[in-house]
Amino acid sequence: MERSARKDGGCWLLVGGRRRLGRALAEDLAGDHDLVLTSSRPWDGETWVDGLSERSWIRRLHWDAEDPGLVSRMMADLDTLQTEGRVISGAVLLAGNFPLQPLGTWTPASLETTWRLNVSFPFLCAQALAPCLSEGACLQIILDTSIHHPWLKRLPYSAAKAGLATLVPGLAQLLAPRVRVVGHALGALLPAEDDPTGFLAERTLLKRIGEPADLCRAVRFAADSPFLTGEILTQDGGRRWVDR
Ligand SMILES: NC(=O)c1ccc[n+]([C@@H]2O[C@H](COP(=O)([O-])OP(=O)(O)OC[C@H]3O[C@@H](n4cnc5c(N)ncnc54)[C@H](OP(=O)(O)O)[C@@H]3O)[C@@H](O)[C@H]2O)c1
Fold it and tell me: Which interval of the chain is the signal sequence (predicted)?
């Protein structure tokens, strides 16, 4: 059952707020925010969200980058929230994937699939959300430290994140002064399955990978910094300054 109480931090929408970093952010924010979480799959059986619903108002939405009716679904969901009097005071776009696509494997279909989720989807979400965000809201977009040094075996993914690196300052100009836009270029915050030797940690100045709490802190910092817009904050343990 949904609780009706409102939290001081207002209502935030997390696109891709179900797994991994999205879940960690939802759990962090739930203490002082109402939350709208999206997933590409039906929400049944997510007991951790049921747990969060005990202390926060949570709405679960089904937004799938592959859905041909995505745009009208997003508009309908956002209309419903507005009709219910829910004002969105913050949003974070986390959805994406991290496909291995070395040179020689690229096809029109595989490139389109990568770019649909990693660049078209955030663009469409940002467009749908922009008019719904309240005055003073911050729209935050999750990028990758690959915007500084592309992943050579994941160039299509890196190109998608570079597209988002253009979206951040561009949207900041289009939405100012009502709404701020901030990006987060992340190094590894979760251990990679294909990195059993700790190679990623070794390739940072700090000799470790980060953790989801690093993202949570930065997201709160950006939301609470009213003079910050159009910027991309890099958190990668100094990876981009390591000689290659
Ligand atoms: N993890 C890291 O260390 C790291 C490092 C650098 C950058 N990042 C960036 O941080 C963000 C979160 O990364 P992550 O590692 O937590 O998770 P992830 O595995 O990359 O997935 C992020 C989210 O994308 C959603 N998603 C997958 N397919 C989708 C689709 N067809 N339509 C809509 N949503 C879809 C997933 O939710 P559902 O399956 O519920 O739909 C998931 O919550 C990503 O943008 C990633 O590029 C992460």
Answer: none
Which residue ranges make up each domain of the chain?
Answer: 11-241
Bridge-partner residues for 137, per DSSP?
Answer: none
- What spacing in Å lies between the alpha carbon of 38 and ligand 1's midpoint? 11
Residue 105 Cα to ligand 1 middle (Å):
22
- Ligand 1 site, CB within 6 A: 16, 18-22, 39-41, 63-66, 94-98, 117, 142, 144, 186, 188-190
Give the model confidence (pLDDT) of 82-104 as tens digits.
Answer: 999 999 999 999 999 999 999 99
- CATH tag, 11-241: 3.40.50.720
Query: What would the pLDDT profile of 159-209 be if each residue is shown by its tens digit?
Result: 999 999 999 999 999 999 999 999 999 999 999 877 777 888 999 999 999
Selection from 224, 130, 220, 124 nearest residue 178 by Cα = 130
